[in-house]
Structures are given as C-alpha cells and as structure tokens.
Amino acid sequence: MKTIKSKRDFERVFARGRRYNDSLLRIRVAPLDEGDPGRVAFVAAKRLGNAVFRNRCKRVLREAARSAGLPIDGYDVILFSTHNTHDSSPEQVASALRRLIGRAGL
Known about the structure:
Blueprint: H1 7-16, E1 18-21, E2 25-31, E3 39-43, H2 51-68, E4 75-81, H3 83-87, H4 90-104
Parallel strand pairs: 3-4
Antiparallel strand pairs: 1-2, 2-4
Helix pairs in contact: 2-4
C-alpha cells in the first residue's frame, strides 16, 4: 500500500481535498492527475492520547483501509482517527470508511 509521507503532499491534500466525517473516523480526499496510483495516510493526533493509544488507532485504520479496498487509483486519501477508533473493531471502522467513500463518490 503506497502511503503519503511528504509535508508537501499532505498540504496539497488539505488544499485541494474534501472532508467527510463519521463518529469512528474522518477522511480527506483529493483527486490526483490522470493515471496516478492512489495513496493513503493514517493520522492519529497527539491530543488523542499516549503513543500506545495512537498506535492502536493507526493499526485499526490500516486494517480497515485494506478491507475497504484502499488505495483508490486517482485519489489521495488521509484517514484521521477519533477517540472512538481505539475501541472499535477494524470491521466497524471499515464499514464506516465504506460509507464515507460512497459519500465522496469514489
């Protein structure tokens, strides 16, 4: 799975992307140039808790992204965890992610 790593790419997604929210996660989706492979980023803010808490949130997000079929060609997607992500199963988060992807029209 290709991931977004550079600050410049994150800023581009924030500038050009659209945001979609759910109680289990938030996503930001930005289109890429024609033919580019899609990429994904997983974010857990420090305000959520300690490193163990944040790492669990990112593990749940990674598994949910695999289940939901990310990355999608032609789109960069950033997944943000919430407090509810930690206590949810990857299947629940994947279901919420599929709903958000549907709302985004992907």
